[in-house]
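Batch manifest, entry 17 of 40.
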Amino acid sequence: MRSGKVMTSEGGRQGVRVGAGIVAVLAGVGLGAIAIGVAVTTSERVAAAQSATSGNKSSGDGGLAPYLVAAGQGLVTPPDIEDVEHMCALLTSCHDLPFPPSSLPNNEATCVSAIMKDLTSPGAVKYPLVIRECALQANSCADLRSCALRGAAPDFCKGWNKTVGRCDLDGRAINCSHEQIVGVRDCPRGGEQCYVREGQASCVLGPCTAENAENAAATCSASGNRVLKCNGSKLNSVDCAAFGLKCTLDNGRPGCSPQTPACSGDAKRCDGNVAIGCEHGHEVRVDCGAAGLTCNSVPGAVPVGSCMAPPPANAGDKCDPKDPPKCDGATIKYCFAGRKRSYLCRTLGFDKCVKEGNTAHCQ
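Output type: structure tokens
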């Protein structure tokens, strides 16, 4: 839960706005067509984990944040919806964020719904740390921008009026588009090095090896900590250990998973208000009750990931999730899982609510 919010007024970002596509963009890890379902590069995960443990979040377990330790045990605790609302207000409204503009959400309501669905599902054990440690924790546009830059100079792309990938002097992989930073990966923190190929900067472990040759299938490293794949003569990896997870095989396919009992399929079962599902062949327990949700359905309940949102007791609080959001002064009013919600833009220092077609965001 957030505390001590900083009130910072900043205008909304300009340009193309789509749905909650930022998670899909962050899913690119440079391993080609491997469907490993892990969302950020090795270096970004390590950087986020180190950032999380540099303050008061140390876990005493390998330097990982407590929620990463829990993920390694197959345990997911969804965030409060209020924190997701704050995060979505920043993602939909801040400008000059170091992400591709077309990947950022443009609607508070759809952003909240998409993120809550993802973070109440088994796949939350390997959710993008740049979302968890930057977007969910930021109290202002400046906070979010600084965290996502990973120490890179904000003006690094100035003078590069085209799409280009570059390595900075500290070994970060930085991608630019028309003088704007649209991606940063801090390669050295993950034991990797910056590499530019076909105009895109990324992080690699080094040259491919005899064990991981070009065109060979992806494998787990000998330590069981990484997924490895040779691509363009360079060894790409996903660091499962940065999530507190291990590299395992599910039907011969390598990926990151907790060290929990084996499972298969997409079915879930309930243990009280805990939903037990399957992620890459291993059980994951989602604590629905922690987010005010239930595991078992009741009449009128709406699915939220692996959980269920019970209908509001007061009929006046009910709504249709298909209803578009609207502005009421500086407040966004919208429907989440059949229940009316409102978000005051001034909470994070924005001035007003802006309605554009069927979308609404702060500005």
